[in-house]
Structure formats: structure tokens, C-alpha cells
Design a protein that fits this description.
By secondary structure, the chain is α/β, with parallel strands linked by helices. The longest helix is centred in the middle third of the chain and has 30 residues. The protein is elongated, with a radius of gyration of 28 Å.
């Protein structure tokens, strides 16, 4: 492509003015960062990013993550000017633009493809949803890990299919958030040289200058993380930017951080380097003055000069198309020479699982002593992962406790000297783990991350974002109740289940025995567009006799009748529970049955799955004409009233736990068969008394 600095500057200023105009029309948004970073983004996309706008989901494309999601207009302007095509629901390119000029004019409006922060699935070309600062950086680490796994698993000496890089654009806010420290530390340890972060050091946040709260020596910190660091003093210095990007791509033994100094709101005569330029529209007069400073027609809005789109097409577009066509030719030959690997890759791309993926999932025999559901979960996980090569995951330094270590033949640790391993070691970095797991899922892996349920609080943002993005991340949470025992209230989760159940689009499963665990994993694996939390116990749970009680396949309906009144009799009371409390309800059921009292036990491992069933099924499980109900769960009360009714009994936690042996805790907080039995009898008497008065 012919060197033309004037045309390059015209492209940069087009990005700036589109961003200004969109924010001004919406009267909402952040114009300052897109204006400041337009030169950085332009040179990266135009001269380095390997990306074909006509095939935006091409597998070997470079990934671009805008971690500074408030600068969304920077990305939307790039997607429009480079001519990225929209894809349909099946991922196939269409003739429609990913972002049209009309879309830009509808910035931040209802139903537009240009929301305030970039949203995955909503806008083609957006690789991940970024809003909460730092999340994009965590995602980028997962993406870079996935890239290395792709290389190790699929590349052959005569057929190197994958070599893509991951670029992330971040700012001062990202660097302040703790997740960036966790993510950078992990990436440095893994020596992910395919990862390049560009840090916009503009020294401005919403409250004002960063001197108010931030004086880190970022480059020294990153060198301590085993990163290569580079420095560009002026974001408008094209030669310095080019040199830094070229050097970053040449580094082969560690990730690279490029620190770029910019002036926020660059070109705005009265608002550059101020918080106002960061967090609000410039104003009509300031927009006009800024355009004048750029040599721009002041009376033109959403103006794209002749030659700008053509410049991008001759640079990024032509380079990306050539790279994609070369890759496709390689893949076609690869498909013939390595058909098994090609079939695996095709399944990954289609978000499908191999035939027979669940064949080896064990069936657990009845056992009164039972096994901890974390133990049965580990067995099921290993049975699945051995048949799904792209299943990868680990724990936040807790795999011996969460039982998530993969032990089948050929399993190994994912480390800098073996990127083909499937066991990930996230270290004590729960927040970073959650975001990296999402980055792996965005790369079509089937990833999982694990820790104790109490520490799900440390990773709530990535769990929520997994649900927003509809990616199949699996989070395995063990030590799920006061059953943790002597560790005490700091480690005994109470409100966490209610919090997770409140996340729209998240499947939460708390299985009650080993066979429910097996079905819970089947539920989690079956949906490629829904994240799941599998919540399991530290203590042994009896394995129920499924020849006597209903099949655990009822887990697929969220809740099911485990045991019912004999001979078709109407139940006088419904006992309902999840997890470790299910066996207590079964014990009470048997006692009531021996006394001739008809009762029903309902296992409710997943409220959200149950709520998605039709009314007829829900009514068949919880018939409206049975008012006497008892819910039993070692967690907070919130939510159970919808199932037990206003007058139903709830044997739940109303306080935090305590440090004591589990038997003492059950007695103190009422989770004994005797207490649940009394609650059931009281419910029966309440209903009988009410009936006699009517």
C-alpha cells in the first residue's frame, strides 16, 4: 500500500468526527477516548491486525478487544469504515454491514447495533462484551490461551493452521481494577507472547486527574509480571506507534505492554485533557471548533470523505483477504490429510459435541453412606473431558479440593512449555479466572473454572457477563453450605445461591446425590449458549436408590417428583429441597409414610430450569391443591416463598453460620430429620385446621 500520510490523517480524523457526532446526537457517551486513540486504533487495524472484513469470523483472525468499553464509538467507527460484514445467526457473512452509518447515527438508542458499550452477539466484530473495566483484559488472556491451545492441538509440522494474535486496548481504569493485575500476572507466567496490550495512559478518569488516586509505575509492575514493555510518548506519532507494534510482534517469549501517552479529547480546544471530554458530549460549539481544528467541514455531520473507505480496503481489507484465502487453501489440504483433527475443529466451530460425549458418564449405585458430590462431580467431569478434547479448565489453586483435576490418560497441565494441556492452573485469582474462562468460551472451547462457592463473590462480574454474552462457561463451586463445618462463617456460603439464581440466563444446579450430579453435567454441557454453575458439597451425600425413587433424569426439568404418596393418594405435604438437604427430606418422607401419612418429595436442583418448563409440568410437580409445604436448604431464605407459599415452612438459614463440626451445625440450625419432620407435621395440622374452619 502506497505511503500517504495525509490520507492516513484523513482516516484518523474521520474516526474522530464520527465519534464526536454520534455522542453529540445521543447527548450521551464518551467522545474523548475515541478522539485520543484514533491514531493508535488506525495504525493497528490498518497495518497490523490480520482480519478479513468479508469473513469476520474467520478462525485464524487476530482478535481485537476494546477493554475501554466506554470508547465504543472508536470500535463502531472502525467496523463501519473497514466495511466489516454482518453475520447471520449461523455465523455466515451477509451482504449487510456490521455497522452502517445509520447505526452510528442511532448510537445508544433502543434496538440499535451501537449500544453504549460493545455487546457480543449484538454487533458483528465485537469479540467480547466490555463494560466493567478490566473484564476485556481478562477475556484477552483466555483468548490468547485458546490460541496457544489451537496451535498445540491442531498445528502439524507441514500444516501450521493457527498463529493469530490477541490485541487489547485498555486505559487507566483497567489498570486500577484488580482484575488487570490477576490477568497480567497469569499471562506473564504463561509467557503468552501472542498477547499485546496497548495501554492508553491519558491520566484522566471521571473524577479528574489520576493523581487523585493513582501513582503506579505501570511499566515496572509489568516487567515484574514478566512482560516486555514499550513506550510511545505521543499517540499521534505514527512512526513511534509503528515501531512499537512491529517490535511487540517480534517478541516470542512473553506478552507485551505498549504504554501510549495520549491527550483525551485531542483537538477539542477547550475540553481536551478534562473529565468532561471523557464522560459527556462536547457540545455543539465545541464540536464545531474541534472540526475546524481538524480542517473539517463544520456543517457536515457523520461525514466520511472520499478515499477513507478505499484506504482501509486497500490496507486492512486486502491484507486480511489475502491471509484468509491462504489459510483456507491450507485448511482444505489439512482437511484431506488430517481428517480426524479437521472433524474436531468443525465440531468446535459449530458449537457441537462429539458423538458419544456422555457415554462414559458413570451411574452410581445406591449407597447409604454415599459420596461427596464434589467427588462424584470430579468423576463425571473426567468421563466427559476424556471424550471432548477441547474441554479445558481448572481451579483457583483448589483442584485437590474441588476435584476438578483431569486425570485421564493424556491429560496434562497447560503451561508455557506445554500449551496442549487441558488442566489450567489459575492460581489464587478467582476474578481473573472467571474472565479467562469466558475468553476461552468466546474462542469455542468448552471451559470450566472452579473454587469454593463462597468465593463466587470474587468472580460475580464474569459470571454475569457470561450470561449476557450467552457463552457456555461452566463454573464448578464446591463447599456449598454450612457443611464446610469448622472453617466457620467466613467460608460457609449463605446468600450466594440466591445471588446466582438472580442472574438472568444463568443455569444454577445444586444436585442432591451422585446421579443428580451426572445429570447436572449433562444439562450444563447440552446448551452452547448458556453458562452454568454446578454447586456441590464437601461432605458425603447418600446415593439414593433409583429403583425405589424416581430417575435422576428429572434434573433435566429443573425439579421433579422424587418420591410420591403411595397408591395414587393425594399428598398431605410436599417436602422440597436441593443438594445435601434432599436426603433429609427423603428420610422424613419415609417416616411419614410409615405413619400412614401420604407425602411427596420434590427435588429442585435448578430453579431456573424448572421455571422454563410449561405450566402443566410445574403444576404436576407442585399441585396448587397441596398447601402444606416445607422447603429445606442450607442457604438464605430469599426466593423459596414462590414455592412454599406465604404460609409454607422454610427450614433455611436466617443468619451466618458458625465454626463447629457439621453434626453440631445441623442441630443448631435445624437441619435434622427430627426438625424437618416437626415442620411437616405442623404444616399438615395448619392446613387441616384451616379446612375445618371453612
Amino acid at each position: 500500500m502506497q505511503n500517504d500520510p495525509a490520507l492516513d490523517q484523513l482516516c484518523i480524523n474521520t474516526i474522530r468526527t464520527l465519534s464526536m457526532d454520534a455522542v453529540q446526537k445521543a447527548n450521551s457517551g464518551h467522545p474523548g477516548t475515541p478522539m485520543a486513540l484514533a491514531p493508535v486504533a488506525y495504525h493497528l487495524w490498518q497495518n497490523h491486525l490480520v482480519y478479513d472484513p468479508d469473513e469476520p469470523l474467520w478462525p485464524n483472525r487476530d482478535r481485537f478487544v476494546l477493554s475501554v468499553g466506554h470508547a465504543s464509538m472508536l470500535l463502531y467507527s472502525l467496523l463501519h469504515l473497514t466495511g466489516v460484514k454482518a453475520v447471520d445467526h449461523d455465523g455466515n457473512p451477509t451482504d449487510e454491514p456490521a455497522v452502517s452509518l445509520d447505526d452510528i447515527q442511532q448510537f445508544r438508542q433502543m434496538g440499535s447495533k451501537t449500544p453504549g458499550h460493545p455487546e457480543y452477539r449484538m454487533t458483528t466484530g465485537v469479540e467480547t462484551t466490555t463494560g466493567p473495566l478490566g473484564q476485556g483484559l481478562g477475556n484477552s488472556v483466555g483468548m490468547a490461551m485458546a490460541a496457544r491451545w489451537h496451535e498445540s492441538h491442531f498445528n502439524q509440522p507441514d500444516a501450521p493452521l493457527f498463529d493469530y494474535r490477541v490485541y487489547a486496548l485498555c486505559g487507566d481504569g483497567d489498570m486500577m481494577e484488580g482484575i488487570s493485575h490477576e490477568a497480567a500476572s497469569l499471562a506473564g507466567h504463561l509467557k503468552l507472547s501472542n498477547l499485546i496490550w496497548i495501554y492508553d495512559s491519558n491520566r484522566i478518569t471521571i473524577e479528574g486527574h489520576t493523581d487523585l488516586a493513582y501513582s503506579d509505575d505501570v511499566e515496572s509492575r509489568f516487567r515484574g509480571y514478566n512482560w516486555h514493555t514499550l513506550h510511545v510518548d505521543d499517540a499521534n506519532n505514527a512512526d513511534a506507534l509503528e515501531a512499537a507494534l512491529v517490535e511487540a510482534k517480534s517478541i516470542t517469549d512473553r506478552p507485551t505492554l505498549i504504554v501510549v501517552h495520549s491527550i483525551i479529547g485531542y483537538g477539542a480546544p477547550h475540553k481536551q485533557d478534562t473529565a468532561a471530554a471523557h464522560g459527556e458530549a462536547l457540545g455543539v460549539e465545541e464540536v464545531a471548533l474541534t472540526k475546524k481544528a481538524y480542517g473539517w467541514p463544520e456543517d457536515k455531520f457523520f461525514y466520511v470523505p472520499h478515499g477513507v473507505r478505499e484506504r482501509f480496503a486497500a490496507g486492512m481489507g486486502a491484507r486480511g483477504k489475502a491471509a484468509r484465502e491462504q489459510w483456507q487453501a491450507k485448511y482444505d489440504a489439512y482437511n484431506k490429510k488430517y481428517p480426524e483433527l479437521a472433524r474436531e475443529f468443525a465440531l468446535m466451530e459449530a458449537h457441537e459435541l462429539p458423538a458419544g460425549w456422555d457415554t462414559d458418564i458413570p451411574t452410581f449405585e445406591a449407597d447409604a453412606k454415599g459420596v461427596a458430590s464434589r467427588e462424584s462431580s470430579g468423576k463425571v467431569l473426567n468421563a466427559i473431558a476424556a471424550r471432548v478434547p477441547w474441554m479445558i479448565g481448572g481451579a483457583a489453586d483448589l483442584s485437590p479440593s474441588t476435584k476438578t483435576n483431569l486425570k485421564f490418560e493424556g491429560a496434562a497441565s497447560f503451561e508455557h512449555d506445554n500449551y496442549g494441556g487441558c488442566n489450567l492452573h489459575f492460581g489464587i485469582r478467582e476474578h481473573g479466572m472467571g474472565a479467562a474462562v469466558n475468553g476461552l468460551a468466546l474462542s469455542n472451547m468448552r471451559p470450566f473454572g472452579s473454587t469454593f462457592l463462597i468465593f463466587s463473590d470474587y468472580m460475580k462480574p464474569p459470571i454475569r457477563l457470561a450470561a449476557i454474552m450467552e457463552v457456555p462457561s461452566i463454573f464448578v463451586f464446591t463447599h456449598d453450605s454450612i457443611g464446610v463445618g469448622e472453617d466457620g462463617p467466613t467460608h460457609q456460603p449463605i446468600e450466594q445461591l440466591a445471588s446466582l439464581r438472580g442472574v438472568p440466563g444463568l443455569t444454577v444446579l445444586r444436585p442432591g446425590d451422585a446421579n443428580e450430579v451426572a445429570e447436572a453435567w449433562r444439562v450444563a454441557m447440552a446448551d452452547p449458549k448458556r453458562p452454568s454453575c454446578i454447586v456441590v458439597s464437601r461432605q458425603p451425600l447418600p446415593t439414593l436408590d433409583r429403583s425405589k425413587y424416581a430417575s435422576a433424569k428429572g434434573v433435566h426439568r429443573g425439579a421433579y417428583v422424587l418420591a410420591d404418596a403411595p397408591d395414587g393418594k393425594k399428598s398431605e405435604v410436599i417436602l422440597m429441597a436441593t443438594g445435601s438437604e434432599l436426603s433429609t427430606c427423603v428420610e422424613v418422607y419415609e417416616k411419614l409414610k410409615s405413619e400412614g401419612i401420604p407425602a411427596r418429595v420434590v427435588s429442585m436442583p435448578s430453579w431456573d430450569v424448572f421455571e422454563r418448563q410449561d405450566d402443566a409440568y410445574q403444576d404436576s410437580v407442585l399441585p396448587a391443591d397441596v398447601d402444606a409445604r416445607v422447603a429445606v436448604e442450607q442457604a438464605a431464605t430469599l426466593g423459596w416463598d414462590r414455592y412454599v407459599g406465604r404460609l409454607g415452612a422454610q427450614v433455611v438459614m436466617h443468619t451466618f453460620g458458625a465454626s463447629a463440626p457439621i453434626a453440631d451445625l445441623k442441630k443448631k440450625f435445624g437441619f435434622t430429620p427430627e426438625h424437618v419432620y416437626e415442620a411437616a407435621k405442623q404444616q399438615i395440622e395448619r392446613v387441616k385446621s384451616k379446612s375445618s374452619q371453612e
